[in-house]
Amino acid sequence: MQKTARLAQGGVKMEYITVGEAAEKWGISSRLVQKYCAEGRIEGVVKFGKSWGIPSNAQKPQDPRSIKQQSQEQSTFIGEGLMPLMNSAFVPGNCMSCIELMTNNLQRKVAMAEYYYFSGQPEKAVHETETLLEQEDLGVRLSAYLIYAYANLSIGQSRSTRYALSELQRYLQKAAYAVPELRAAETFVAFAAAVLLHLPLPQELPPTQEFLPLLPPGLRAFALYVQAHLLYLQGEYAKSAGMAEATLSMGAENYLIPAIYLHLVAVMNYMSLRQPEQAKTHLLAAWTLARPDDLIEGLGEHHGLLGGMLEAVIKPQWPKDFKRIIAITYRFSAGWRKIHNPETGHFVADDLTTTEFVTAMLAARGWTNQEISAHLNISPHTVKQHISVALQKLHIKHRQELKKYMLL
Fold this sequence. Notes:
By secondary structure, this protein is mainly alpha-helical. It is built from 20 helices and four strands. Strands 1-2-4-3 form a four-stranded antiparallel β-sheet. Helix 16 (309-317) packs antiparallel against helix 17 (319-344) and helix 18 (354-364) packs across helix 20 (380-394).
């Protein structure tokens, strides 16, 4: 339904929009808009039969709780409401059993949303988190916004991703008033959201040494993965790899989701250091942890940074799984670029196939056609063709120019 004009009190003509139009405008779900209407939280809203009419100039309702109320919340949610699956230690193959054993209903719902996301089911992750975005438990709400932001990338809803990221930024700006554990939680989600999209860090972000000790072990392990990822982006490959391996050696291997991501960041670094055997060891370790529970999202997300390791290691032995991972790559990377490229001005290539991207990225790192050929188990002629097509698509003439379009 398009905007309609009605006479409000005093004879003033008012334009109304639908629930769906308001949801799109504010970057939230229609269900949440309907909830706001029913609760009377949108000024000037009227009911037309079974539908709601929302003033076209209405503002999205804000969290009604005061900063003082938020700062009085206790930190018990840290091990429960905040990313409980990420913070759970379980044996590969027992992910669903771990979730079923959670006694708190909200905790279990967050964990299911995490599972849907990390197993490459973004639509289900979005549906599960929509009902959690307004929960009073801050840990639940922060988890929901983080999952909601990333899941919406893969379904092409960049407006919803931007909305969730802005909410996380808003919480971080108010975190100075909160108790230390709450500030640590808010910092953790904002840190992860920014770094993994390769965006500038929020100005309000405190040093990692201030919030890391306040996180429970699983979340601390994932935060260290994020820190290692940041070091990778800064070109500190050896330091980043060392951080990942040290974290894994100190018990992070028991927390499957952080461990998978730590192994993947190690792959990224060892490929950048041109040590493919070490990279292969870490990729197989990540795959061994991920495959029993189908936690394959991370492999798809990191495809462009893994330097062809998925093609070299996973594709030959697990071709069906490889196809599913690549499908995740295409969906996630398309949404990722919609946020990353406009925000940073760095135009990562958006129209290359995954194979073209891999060969172009290795070429940008200085690999010869023969080295790329041996690594990917394809002929040097095929490598040359892929790089030639990549150059054509990017409208450049020399392989030295590839670097600015790659994730380097």
